[in-house]
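Many introductory courses stop at the sequence. We go one step further.
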Amino acid sequence: MKSFKRRTLIFGCLCVFCVLVVLYAGFARYGTVGISSPCFISNGNGQRVERNHCSLDNKNLSLQSRHLHIMVSLTSSSTNKTSVDRPQDALADLLQKPKSFSQSDVAMRNGENKLSHKALQDIVSSEFQFNLSSTDVIVFLHIQKTGGTYFGKQLVSNLILKEPCNCTGQGVKICDCYHPHTADIWLFSRFTMGWPCGLHASWTELVNCVNDLLDRRQHSTLKRRYFYITFLREPIKRFKSEYCHVKRGATWSGSTMICNGRSPTEEELPPCYAGDTWKNVSIDAFLACESNLAHNRQTRMLADLMLVNCYNTTGMSARKRDAILLKSAKVNLRSMAFFGLVEHLELSQFLFEQTFKLYFKTRFSLSTFSKSARLVTTASQLETIREKNNLDVALYEFAEELFMARVEKMKKLFPQEYIQFDKGGL
């Protein structure tokens, strides 16, 4: 009798164990058991973390798992000295090459208090170099009030190309910029595609949109290399310029701000004004709106917003969220094939030309940006602007250091080209 009970108990335990194995396998593969259950994914440390918005699609699940793994990497050192207040401290260093920016997993390691030689070598290696005769695509991330319209026009109208872009239409022209002898684009920008990934699409929107969009539009699944580029501007000047733009009645209300498959709700991003525009808004009212996306816009548009649960700010402290956003923006900026600075426009032209071996017909003109808003502010208002854009200020300091390091690298690699450029030659 005892032997029978023992065998029964063992059999029961084995049954329970088998059920648990099946349930665990379901969680590991799909992140959920049952339609109403929450979604779980690996956080990269062997732990499983619940996510509120998760798709059973394997591709999306893999992407979310990658984002969460990066978030663990970014937050694991939050107790160390690195902080928003000390942006010069240890920064995460990106090892992947920019050429596979939107398609490969991101590999990161702890950096030192200086720019890595590896990060600079990537932008000039033969493996990295842009090939206009292949399927390479330049993707322009256009941040508001950073000279993006001017630079975007230079790309479609001022480059020396065997097959120039063909621009048609009235007003804002749409240009066909094709690889030689094909109908495949080499430039993804406002002036070649419009805004198919959203009005002034951010990094988060572009990396989850561009490849699939091109596959659909070109009716092909080409293996492409993506070279992301952008322009930045000194944060206080950029913020003032955006304020004056909005005060005149302009809006970007058409922005979708898609993150994790959806736009933010009004609870997550309360509107700053009623009606169609915020025309004639005072600078104090513009600064007072906590959900004003003009605050730290450059950081937000360069960061991976999925690392902080998109526009939902209830899941973590503001300090932790800011630290993750800033570090993510720095990592993404470093991984970009090229970025320019409005304050160093001519050097930006030199850096672009030597990075891509694509040359402009004429020199960029600094006077193009002389119409920046001459907004008179009090000392108190100016200090508030700095506080509201503290992440952008830290990001710009980092960007300027990296930009100058890349320029110096190019000067050493191509000294004759720089001498000719510096003398005003093209």
